């Protein structure tokens, strides 16, 4: 009878140790999920800022290109005076 009590105690001890380890693993997972969510939010914000900056740069390049075309055209237009 004492061996069975000792076996149950050993079984209970193992179950308790497994439960403790599972709680530690759960804490690690929660911690890493929070860090992943924070990093993901930061990456998405950075991606949005890069997109807006790129759109702004594209608009500037297009505007400057159109302005250069009009400026070059003005050099070659026939400007006759009306006298």
TrEMBL record:
It is a single-pass type I membrane protein. The chain crosses the membrane at residues 50-71. Keywords: Membrane, Signal, Transmembrane, Transmembrane helix. Residues 7-76 form the GOLD domain. It comes from the Eukaryota. GO terms for cellular component: membrane. It is found in: Membrane. The keyword Lyase does not apply. InterPro entries: Emp24-like, GOLD_dom. Belongs to the EMP24/GP25L family. This is GOLD domain-containing protein. It comes from Gongylonema pulchrum.
